[in-house]
């Protein structure tokens, strides 16, 4: 996965190289798709880029809130399954192909996050077991990297700067600046800083 700063166009130097000029048509198309996608959001920051079809299944009063410079790739899905559901995504976060976010209450994703392909984030079990709540908010901090095919379950808080390994099943809170891996996910390294 590229360093987080490398996927965003620099406003002042967009024409500084031949590579930038070659990628300009792609950037323009993504910005145009982002402009059209804004209608599906409650609130949307500047420079939303959409790189393909994005699914939004939302109830009447639910809210999808996107920050500045968010990038959504092909077949990302947002499922807001109650009237009060809120999905909020911070500035400069990107979400890769086929990732699905399912929400009945609240899913908050911070700024500068890198979410890989085929990730599942859900704040609900979609069913109840007697004595247990079927819904609990999910909070993902700033600058979190989530590897491909990871699953984040209800009630989880992921600290700033954490890394979730590919294929991890996150059922408990993740401390800041740590790496978690496995099923269920456990801390395998602490005090890390990723680029």
For this entry, give a set of tags.
mainly beta, UDP N-Acetylglucosamine Acyltransferase, domain 1, 20 strands, 6-stranded parallel beta sheet, disordered N terminus, 31% strand, 8-stranded mixed beta sheet
Q: How would you concisely characterize the structure shown here?
A:
By secondary structure, this protein is mostly beta strands.
Topology at a glance:
Blueprint: H1 18-37, E1 43-44, E2 49-50, E3 54-58, E4 63-66, E5 71-72, E6 76-80, E7 86-89, E8 94-95, E9 100-103, E10 106-109, E11 114-115, E12 120-122, E13 138-140, E14 145-146, E15 151-152, E16 157-158, E17 163-164, E18 169-170, E19 178-181, E20 186-190
Parallel strand pairs: 1-4, 2-5, 3-6, 4-7, 5-8, 6-9, 7-10, 8-11, 9-12, 10-13, 11-14, 12-15, 13-16, 14-17, 15-18, 17-19
Antiparallel strand pairs: 19-20
């Amino acid at each position: 996965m590229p360093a987080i700063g490398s996927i965003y166009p620099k406003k002042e130097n967009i024409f500084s190289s031949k590579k930038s000029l070659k990628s300009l048509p792609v950037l323009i198309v993504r910005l145009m798709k982002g402009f059209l996608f804004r209608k599906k959001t409650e609130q949307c920051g500047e420079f939303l880029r959409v790189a393909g079809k994005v699914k939004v299944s939302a109830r009447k009063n639910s809210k999808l809130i996107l920050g500045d410079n968010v990038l959504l790739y092909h077949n990302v899905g947002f499922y807001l399954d109650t009237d009060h559901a809120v999905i909020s995504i911070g500035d400069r976060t990107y979400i890769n192909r086929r990732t699905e976010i399912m929400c009945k209450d609240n899913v908050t994703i911070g700024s500068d996050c890198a979410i890989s392909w085929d990730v599942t984030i859900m704040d609900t079990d979609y069913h109840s077991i007697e004595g247990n709540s079927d819904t609990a908010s999910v909070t993902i901090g700033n600058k979190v990297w989530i590897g491909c095919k990871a699953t984040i379950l209800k009630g989880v808080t992921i600290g700033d700067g954490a890394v979730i390994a590919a294929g991890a099943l996150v059922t408990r809170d993740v401390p800041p600046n740590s790496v978690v891996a496995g099923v269920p996910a456990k801390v395998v390294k602490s005090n890390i800083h990723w680029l």
